[in-house]
Amino acid sequence: MSASTSVIGFPRIGAQRELKKAIEGYWKGRLDLDQVKETARTLRADHWRLQREAGIDLIPSNDFSYYDQMLDTAILLNAVPRRYRDLGLGPEDTLFAMGRGYQGDQGDVTAQPMKKWFTTNYHYLVPEIDADTRLELTGTKPFDEFQEAKDLGIITKPVLIGPYTFLKLARGPEGEKFEPGQDLVASLAQAYADIIRRFADLGAGWVQLDEPYLVLDKEDGDLDLFRTLYQGILPARQGGKGSVKVLLQTYFGHVGDCLDQINELAFDGIGLDLVEGCDENLAALKRSGVSHGTMVFAGLVNGRNIWRNNYAVSLGILDAVRQLTPDVVVSTASSLLHVPFTVANEDGLDAQTVRPHFAFAVEKLGELRDLAVLADTDEAGKKSSRALADNQRLFDGTRVERDQAVSSRLAALDDQDFVRQPDRAERQRIQADELGLPTLPTTTIGSFPQTAEVRSYRAKLRKKEIGQEEYDQFIASQIDQVIDHQERIGLDVLVHGEFERNDMVEYFGQNLNGYLFTKNAWVQSYGTRCVKPPIVWGDVSRARPITVRWSSYAQSRTKHVVKGMLTGPVTILNWSWPREDISHQEQTQQLALAIRDEVLDLEAAGIRVIQIDEAALREKLPLRRSDWHTRYLDWAVPAFRLVHSAVKPTTQIHTHMCYSEFNDIIKDIDAMDADVISFEASRSDLTVLDAIQEAHFETEAGPGVYDIHSPRIPSREEIVERIHAILDKLDAGKVWINPDCGLKTRGNEETWPSLEHMVAAARQVRDELSAQH
Ligand code: GLN
Ligand code: ZN
User: Percentage of residues in the chain with pLDDT exceeding 70?
Assistant: First the structure.
């Protein structure tokens, strides 16, 4: 006998990113829809079997998605805005139109807004609910997939985004928050009741409803909403033909402030994250217990790291839970969607000293099994357990030597190292003289399309089919072209295009001491897009200058100012797999010193504008407000200042952020003390402009004037309108005109016309402004 095991969700993209390749092949017209469906079916079957073979008891279904599970939920519940229905496309194409916009014979619509899924780098599509929306169960996807697994002899546990999280993340047509009316709440509860009843009839044992929104601070009415929804849903567990159990699954934090309310509803199971928010969840369990008959799903195996689980620690936590309630299932702490597939093929990592420290999705299945078995093994059995002994060895002794040079440099820092002189207003005057830019200066975020040609050169270099020299010549010619093209269309601040970078984090990591890289450890970021974060293994320092060569080359090709392009320390850490033996604060400071060296070298090489991207700063903001400063901003913001505090007043420091819901931390962003910031503002509402206005934001700002996450080409008129909306709120003297993010995922076909429209729009508004004076 051993405890049962449960997986909250499994990666769906495939060990070799098969799903990505199939869907993108379809978009490019190389594959037809049936081929995509076949790939999808094979992946689902493989993943279910893999989990069954690993001995997992509760295997998820409906964790598969062509694009995003939130988008699937919206479609399932009939929340498809009219403009997408009106395209008259088939179901999959409608789904893709919602995800990435559509421009073609059937019409022209933008994509739905996209936001970061809690503190991950995964993006979900924001459901849109308007006066016309009639929420009801219209789709069959979860049932079809359940049946598909059943036909393979596997009774899965269907997973769905829960109604509370769905509603809390939904927005109105203008991206606004709204108060759901009683009718809406009732129809949503009805739809979920229909789902539960249907599963009861289909013979499911459990249905998992994901409610990560419960780990956030509550607003007035939230808990009433939660209760109303579930009071409407839970009676449906007794279906017509059978009955089903409902698992309320929480993750990414604790539910210490609402466990009592959860208990009142008497769920059959409650899933608790015992990695993030472990202490608070344990304390809440101790205080309130769980209602009679409720099983606790103990989230012990981290779904968001790549390091081996420390069995002794997990078993200790499990013991603590079992003392409070006997019925415990060993579970992942969150979906494994956020980790790569398997360590097995990472033959670039040493098999003796390095690989044993890592566990990706497949290996985490083994950890769940080990823990479940060990949980019911007595002390004598534990002593002779090979699994436990092997695991312990990973955590005994020194995994990696500390770098004394790095620690002494950190110890020598004083307050002055975190403050740039003179103050910003003074610098902005000096820089206006120095750079001589027009009002509403135009620029881009850094990268230009990474074409098949660029990627093939990098691949050839990697496979040693060409030498470094030939590769460098190619990069130089790409830079020549992109500089020339930017000059021709009339951009003001140019970039070198980032052709030499595969990725804005990996490229830096490759030039830092202390980093490791994988070959195939891809994780889904949005839609079919995946990222491959590098691993922080030891203490970090700069091994050599990183960007100086290509930035100065680009500057040598033009009289216009070329912006140097760096990734900031917080983002490098957030998009790496951090180590767990020292704090994030310390790792970020090490990175800050490394990037500071690079900033000063760029300045010395004659680069007058330097952008330090902090695309991911907002992403890791703790979910609970009380943790924002103490657990994050109090060190993240100073780390950024440390990077640029030593530059000359004439050097203009830019930063950039993506998907920045940063209204709440606007003051902290200003406190980063950059001269200019560009950010995403085109897929989301423009309330950020109000926040900027109210905060008397000092940093000059470039709210993105069009969405680069879609192949759609915006018209000049559309951009003019967008600029007008921006100038309604912000002082023209402090506004920059730019797209909302880097262009590397786009094609040249759409990029250049879009930028031409953007430049034309900026010129038109500039003319309007000068006519007014
Ligand atoms: N400079 C980077 C680029 O243009 C920024 C990317 C990002 O914000 N994610 O690609
Ligand atoms: Zn961006």
Answer: 99
Write down the pTM of the prediction. Answer: 0.93
Residue 497: left if φ>0, alpha if ψ -120 to 50, beta else—which one? left
Give dist(CA 297, CA 8) in Å, integer: 10
Please pick, among 496, 644, 709, 757, the residue that the annotation labels catalytic: 709
Ligand showing the shortest atom-to-Cα distance for residue 704: 2
Same domain, 381 and 446: no
pLDDT tens across 627-645, in order? Answer: 999 999 999 999 999 999 9
Does residue 659 surpass a pLDDT of 80?
no
Peptide bond into 422 cis (omega under 30): yes
Same domain, 383 and 452: no
Provide the pLDDT for residue 685. Answer: 62
Using the mean position of ligand 2's atoms as its centre, give its distance from the Cα of residue 678 in Å.
Answer: 8
475 plus 387 within the same structural domain: no
In a domain, 403, yes or no: no
Residue 99 structure tokens: 């995800």
Report if residue 150 sits inside a domain. Answer: yes
The torsion angle over the Cα atoms of residues 744, 748, 752 and 753, rounded to 10 degrees, is -120
Question: What residues make up the domain containing 621?
Answer: 441-772
Number of domains in the chain: 2
Across the chain, what does the average pLDDT equal? 96
Asked, for residue 434, whether it belongs to a domain, the answer is no
Are 373 and 245 members of one domain?
A: yes
Q: Is the pLDDT of residue 605 over 80?
A: yes
| 173 lies in the same domain as 250 | yes
Q: What CATH number corresponds to the domain at position 113?
A: 3.20.20.210
d(CA 95, CA 127): 12
Mutate to test the pocket of ligand 1, among 570, 613, 708 (most ligand atoms within 8 A of CB): 613
User: Is residue 132 domain-shared with residue 268, that is, in the same domain?
Assistant: yes
Residue 681's pLDDT band, with cuts at 50, 70 and 90, is confident
* pLDDT exceeds cutoff 90 at 369: yes
- Whether 258 is in a domain gets the answer yes
Q: What is the CA radius of gyration of the chain?
A: 26
User: What ligand 1 atom has the least distance to the C-alpha of 611?
Assistant: 1
Q: Which of 334, 365, 393 corresponds to the end of one domain?
A: 393
pLDDT-based confidence at residue 400 (cuts at 50, 70, 90): very high
Annotated catalytic residue 709: yes
